[in-house]
Design brief:
Layout: H1 2-13, H2 18-23, H3 25-56, H4 65-84, H5 93-114, H6 122-129, H7 138-159, H8 162-205, H9 215-221, E1 232-241, H10 243-250, H11 252-270, E2 275-277, E3 282-288, H12 292-308, E4 312-321, H13 329-348
Antiparallel strand pairs: 1-3, 1-4, 2-3
Length: 358
């Protein structure tokens, strides 16, 4: 049973567990998009150059010119899709990856059959190299390799002389097994490296106590917000009241629970992607293209939810209406922070909330 479980994880998830592999979905798509953009450009140039050379020559490659041209046009279409379609519909990247791989396989088979009197070399080369170009489940790579070998063997029996077909089939089956083994091994290394990279990235951008984005990620993302909104951007600045006193009177575990509760409530109302813990008891959230009245309502409900748990926070907001491509994000955050300080001063102006309870 352990062997079957290990084999299943190796074929389906490249040796990591299912949860880790599923968490890599977005990363795998992005990695494949970048690789596909690069490889489709290289392949397109390669095929168009071969098409031009073969057209001008009168030798061996002349009969291949139409094949080169067709492959070049497909690669051009794939490249354009990676620039203009995949960014909007990232789920399509794997479809384009499979199309790219299938074109390479069909190209190698086509060349081999056009020159049926010669042993197939290109088919073996593409069989070994193609599965290594992208990120995918090993079982899918193995299936593509098996289909390629089966199609080649069937066509070789039909188009090639028996003695050449026998050699080609033997080579394709043998190197097909080698290609599967190499693909599984390399994919295991690549996926594990991606997992490790994801862990490092998570640590670099996540506040480990609350699970929110940390100050480092806040600083990195801040300049991008002007391009992420269409009509307006709202900054919500939150400061937790009484953290120092809770730490002194009840201990740091109680203060940590307070911060986690505030963070969880913020995530509930503002989501995770644009919510940050930027200091010990300070939090910032951004909302794009949302009516300010909705933010006020959310803040009111959030404040009540926290009050029901015995916690108090001070809120400040700043609204920027987008009239140009860029605006000063630090000024917006500062305005929201100043608004928060006014709310905090108002909170402690009441005798029941004096600074002895802070």
């Amino acid at each position: 049973m352990d062997l079957l479980r290990t084999l299943k994880e190796l074929l389906l998830y490249a040796g990591v567990d299912k949860a880790e592999f599923d968490a890599l979905t977005a990363s795998i798509r992005e990695e494949n998009r970048v690789l596909l953009k690069m490889f489709s450009q290289i392949a397109g140039i390669f095929f168009f150059m071969l098409s031009i050379v073969s057209t001008l020559s009168n030798g061996f490659a002349t009969v291949n010119s139409s094949t080169y041209l067709a492959c070049g046009l497909v690669m051009l279409m794939i490249m354009l899709c990676t620039y203009y379609i995949v960014p909007k519909y990232p789920v399509l990247v794997m479809t384009l990856v499979y199309l790219f791989e299938i074109v390479l396989y069909l190209f190698s088979i086509r060349i081999s059959m056009l020159h049926a009197e010669m042993p197939a070399v290109s088919a073996v080369v593409f069989l070994l190299v193609t599965p290594l170009l992208f990120y995918d489940r090993p079982v899918k790579l193995s299936a593509l390799i098996a289909v390629d070998v089966a199609v080649f063997c069937g066509l070789a029996l039909y188009f090639k002389k028996p003695e050449i077909a026998e050699t080609d089939i033997w080579n394709m089956v043998t190197f097909g097994v080698v290609a599967v083994a190499i693909a599984i091994f390399i994919m295991r290394i690549k996926i594990r490296a991606l997992v490790q990279s994801g862990r490092i990235e998570y640590m670099s951008r996540t506040d480990l106590l609350t699970g929110l984005n940390n100050r480092n990620h806040f600083e990195n993302q801040l300049k991008q917000y002007p391009e992420m909104c269409w009509s307006n951007l709202i900054c919500v600045y939150i400061d937790v009241n009484g953290l120092h006193e809770i730490n002194n009177m009840q201990g740091h575990p109680a203060g940590d629970r307070m911060l986690r509760e505030v963070a969880a409530t913020m995530q509930e109302y503002f989501g995770l992607e644009h919510t940050y813990r930027i200091g010990g008891d300070e939090f910032v959230a951004f909302q794009m293209d949302v009516h300010p009245d909705k933010i006020c309502d959310d803040i009111g409900r959030m404040n009540q939810d926290l009050a029901d748990k015995g916690y108090h926070v001070s809120f400040g907001t700043a609204v920027c209406v987008k009239e140009q491509d860029s605006f000063d994000m630090r000024e917006i955050v500062k305005e929201a922070e100043n608004s928060m300080f006014l709310a905090k001063r108002e909170f402690y102006s009441h005798s029941e909330n004096n600074r002895r309870s802070r």
